[in-house]
Amino acid sequence: MNDMTEPAFSFDETSEALIPSIIAKYPEGRQASAVMPLLDLAQRQMARQTGHAWVPRTAMDVIAARLSMPPMRVYEVATFYTMFHTKPVGKFHLQVCTTTPCWLRGSDEVMSACRKAAEADGETFSIEEVECLGCCVNAPVVQVNDDVYEDLDGPRTEALLERLRAGDVPPAGSTIGRQASAPEGGPTTLFGVGGTKPVSGAE
Q: Which CDD domains match (predicted)?
């Protein structure tokens, strides 16, 4: 990274208000353990200030000084974990799962729609192929920044991206109205739990 092309960085008032409670979670002399939450804090601050979530090296240096640790140790953490971006990403960072359950359910179409959006408008969208996001039962899924959208296909992904482009961020979760991880169309068992029908076999 080139310092000449990176922005100056200091934690803003919002971030500074959170830092003492973050560091206080760790034992005296173990403040370096706060490196990951402070990197996340810096990345979220950059998103607020610039519209692009990333951690410039200048921010890593500030974190190293705050935690009294060698800057190289911060660089190692920031470049090891894929949750941290060392270059600016789009306003909406699309993480497309292509692991087997999502692939079997049509993640190729989802990936194609996301790739087209990122190629057409890199300021708004960036794309990353990722491994399992832990929502296999509602595959295929895409994580957009902090939110996961489930039960996607090509057209539903395109519709989601159009809403995001227009600034209309839909609620996270199933795009077909699925209740949690119930079958499509609604639950088929355990109706007596919070419902009006008895559980099968219950007296």
A: TRX_Fd_NuoE (cd03064)
